[in-house]
């Protein structure tokens, strides 16, 4: 089969021939139709991610949409290394959610990963309650936008979107938007509108998270009211200076949500409901389709905020 292959973590994958996967017991051989080029896909292939494979070569791609031999569509992921979803064929096992025949494979492939990032926070880690106030740090990316849509669907009372891209922020259907600026003056307005935030979904970490945390913790209308801060992505840095007083001045609960800390079985159990919203268009990320044969140039291509490249074999 044709596949994208990483043989050097410092280089983009190349389009090449690779042995078809031999299905092991319990696996099923399928034809890949579409796979998203997510942040985790690039990070894993760079060897820098906590879930990077420990040996090369590898085929990148954490998830995607495939056609079964009976013609039906399935969302799949979690392939056995060295295989990934950026290939013509895959052997799938545990992560296999049937899709309606009219589902658009590129939309599903674009949206599940970014959509799942906040869905798991709302359902499992931060346990969003109806009427609560959610702040999304890094709201202009694909995951942040999906987080706004999912928050609304799951009954959030108020949504505050925080991001640095003014045009992208203006497109977001939030109750409040706060623009991150280089001068740091944005933390004051965030404190003004965010005194009653219940749950922060943090895609940035680093300096913007440090400044947001100070603004939100020091402006609580009721310091004893729980503030859950869920670390999901680290677009602005992998570390932050954490003031010890923040953990005493407010009822701050700091936790994370990711592939290793949340059991696969729990994530898988959420997939059908999330995918139903995606197929129904209620949570959506715009796909930008690119052929697999162009993977070497597509790998570093930038797309507009909120879009996701989808590789099509
Ligand atoms: N844990 C999970 O389950 C999970 C699942 C999916 C994604 N993630 C993580 O979540 C993060 C976001 O993913 P995504 O899908 O939204 O990616 P994306 O669509 O590429 O968007 C990235 C966003 O980050 C913003 N950004 C980058 N650097 C920034 C900085 N220094 N300060 C402020 N904003 C900055 C970008 O803003 P501009 O438009 O201004 O550049 C953009 O809005 C990634 O770290 C990803 O790995 C985690």
TrEMBL record:
<dbReference type="InterPro" id="IPR036291">
    <property type="entry name" value="NAD(P)-bd_dom_sf"/>
</dbReference>
<dbReference type="InterPro" id="IPR051397">
    <property type="entry name" value="Zn-ADH-like_protein"/>
</dbReference>
<dbReference type="InterPro" id="IPR011032">
    <property type="entry name" value="GroES-like_sf"/>
</dbReference>
<dbReference type="GO" id="GO:0016491">
    <property type="term" value="F:oxidoreductase activity"/>
</dbReference>
<feature type="region of interest" description="Disordered">
    <location>
        <begin position="1"/>
        <end position="26"/>
    </location>
</feature>
<protein>
    <submittedName>
        <fullName>NADPH:quinone reductase</fullName>
    </submittedName>
</protein>
């Amino acid at each position: 089969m044709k596949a994208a292959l990483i043989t050097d973590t410092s280089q983009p994958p190349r389009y090449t021939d690779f042995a078809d996967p031999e299905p092991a017991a319990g696996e099923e051989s399928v034809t890949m139709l579409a796979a998203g080029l997510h942040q985790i896909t690039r990070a894993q292939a760079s060897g820098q991610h906590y879930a990077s494979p420990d040996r090369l070569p590898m085929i990148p791609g954490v998830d995607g949409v495939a056609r079964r031999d009976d013609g039906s569509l399935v969302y799949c992921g979690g392939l056995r290394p060295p295989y990934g979803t950026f290939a013509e064929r895959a052997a799938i096992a545990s992560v296999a959610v049937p899709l309606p025949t009219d589902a658009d494979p590129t939309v599903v492939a674009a949206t599940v990963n970014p959509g799942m990032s906040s869905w798991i926070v709302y359902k499992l880690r931060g346990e969003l309650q109806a009427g609560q106030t959610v702040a999304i740090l890094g709201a202009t990316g694909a995951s942040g936008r999906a987080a706004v849509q999912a928050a609304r669907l799951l009954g959030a009372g108020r949504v505050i979107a925080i991001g640095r891209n003014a045009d992208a922020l203006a497109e977001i259907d939030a109750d409040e938007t706060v623009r991150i600026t280089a001068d740091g003056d944005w933390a004051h307005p965030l404190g003004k509108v965010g005194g009653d935030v219940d749950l922060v979904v943090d895609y940035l970490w680093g300096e913007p998270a440090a400044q947001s945390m100070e603004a939100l913790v020091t402006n609580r209308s009721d310091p004893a009211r729980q503030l859950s801060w869920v670390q999901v992505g680290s677009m602005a840095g992998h570390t932050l200076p954490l003031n010890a007083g923040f953990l005493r001045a407010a009822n701050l609960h700091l936790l994370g949500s990711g592939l290793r800390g949340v059991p696969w079985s729990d994530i898988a159990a959420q997939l059908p409901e999330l995918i139903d919203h995606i197929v129904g268009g209620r949570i959506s990320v715009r796909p930008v389709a690119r052929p697999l044969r162009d993977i070497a140039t597509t790998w570093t291509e930038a797309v507009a905020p909120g879009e996701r490249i989808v590789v099509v074999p």
